[in-house]
Design a protein that fits this description.
Layout (H helix, E strand, L loop, with lengths): L3 H12 L1 E4 L2 E19 L12 E7 L6 E11 L2 E10 L26 E8 L2 E9 L1 H6 L22 E9 L6 E8 L12 E9 L3 E11 L6 E12 L4 E11 L19 E12 L2 E12 L10 E11 L4 E12 L17 E12 L1
Antiparallel strand pairs: 1-2, 2-3, 2-4, 2-18, 4-5, 5-6, 6-7, 7-8, 8-9, 9-10, 10-11, 11-12, 12-13, 13-14, 14-15, 15-16, 16-17, 17-18
């Protein structure tokens, strides 16, 4: 697994084919589509529910978001390289952009290169990039999830993965004996108030032959700077040969909480205070791969609206036809307590208010 954004860029360069003396470029992508079944409404604290009780759909981006990307580098001399990535996301079932706000069964077009778009410099002193990028905290969370944040077992249903940050600057150190560090600052770009929409994050990641460990911090302000959320994540995976073990501990504190049973379904993931853990396992048997995970969130607020706890159980299966193509299936269920409103989805699914989901699909890299 690539370590940090510098590792991602280095891996991209390693796969690139030559296009000109002193430079390289590569076109890559993922095509993913599957059947999605969701059921079971989330009941809010006031006794109401919203959204469909049952949903059947052919959907793009169930195990992984479908994408088309361009990446490359140019040697500038003195061990200095210019690097770039431009990656767009789309739905295989409709062909439209998968970035931007989602409404149930509607997919309005979003940014053209909304998955990633950055340019930067890489040298023996590290990597500096600017644009829309994965946060250092996101890279740590990818270590913890056997479902790799896709299918019905998606850890993002209950935990904060932070995802991407626009208008961001990221620095990644060189690797020192398997250890790297990175730091990010993302500008909110609101005139007159730099705190609105501002994000910053940092991580430490260690990679050995069988062990990957990461520690990350992530801070985000909402658009009006009226609320701040701070998330600390410790994540790891270990390849034991017969199986790979996964896990994390996540602590999140918010200065302003979403109300219990918020009609903003899934909003609990970012602006609430909780302690959470994930345990999971992946077992390969030839072309077969079996996945299992459990997540528990404990509400750490006090007062009459506290104890809004939730758990998620997920089981999955992959059949690898080749290194680039696999069939997948998964089932997941969320259990809410005392007015919690966590929902279950997959890599790109609009969750609605489902508590249970089943997936069956196919994913292919090119």
């Amino acid at each position: 697994m690539a370590i940090g954004l510098g590792g991602v860029a280095a891996n991209a360069m390693a796969q690139a084919g030559p296009v000109a003396p002193g430079g390289s470029g590569h076109i890559y992508g993922v095509l993913d589509a599957g059947y999605v079944y969701q059921s079971g409404s989330v009941n809010h604290a006031n006794g109401t529910s919203s959204g469909p009780v049952v949903r059947n759909a052919l959907q793009g981006g169930v195990a992984r978001g479908s994408r088309l990307g361009f990446r490359g580098s140019e040697n500038l001399g003195n061990d200095l390289k210019a690097i770039f990535v431009a990656e767009m996301g789309f739905y295989v079932d409709t062909g439209v952009s998968s970035q931007g706000a989602q409404v149930l069964n509607q997919y309005p077009a979003g940014p053209l290169f909304g998955r990633q778009a950055f340019v930067g410099l890489a040298s023996n002193a590290g990597t500096l990039t600017m644009g829309r990028q994965y946060t250092p905290a996101f890279l740590v969370t990818t270590l913890a999830d056997p479902f790799f944040q896709g299918m019905a077992g998606n850890m993002a249903n209950l935990q904060n993965t932070s995802g991407r940050a626009s208008n961001s600057v990221i620095y990644v150190t060189p690797a020192f004996g398997g250890l790297t560090a990175s730091a990010m600052y993302a500008l909110g770009e609101v005139p007159g108030d730099s705190a609105k929409g501002r994000q910053y994050s940092a991580n430490l990641m260690y990679q050995a032959s069988r062990l990957n460990v990461g520690l990350a911090f992530y801070n985000t302000n909402n658009a009006g700077a009226s609320a701040t959320s701070r998330t600390t994540t410790l994540a790891a995976n270990y390849d034991a040969g017969i199986a790979t073990l996964y896990g994390d501990l996540q602590i999140q504190r918010a200065s302003m909480e979403n109300p219990p049973g918020s009609t903003v379904l899934g909003g609990d993931r970012v602006f609430t205070s909780y302690n959470s853990f994930l345990v999971g396992v992946s077992v390969p048997l030839g072309r077969h791969q079996f996945l299992l995970s459990y997540i528990y969130n404990r509400d750490m607020r006090s007062g009459p609206d506290s104890d809004r706890n939730a758990g998620q159980f997920a089981i999955g299966y992959k059949y690898h036809y080749s290194k680039r193509t696999y069939l997948y299936s998964a089932y997941g269920t969320v259990t809410n307590h005392n007015g919690a409103s966590y929902t279950i989805g997959d890599a790109l699914s609009v969750n609605g208010n489902a508590r249970r989901a089943f997936n069956l699909g196919l994913s292919h890299d090119f």
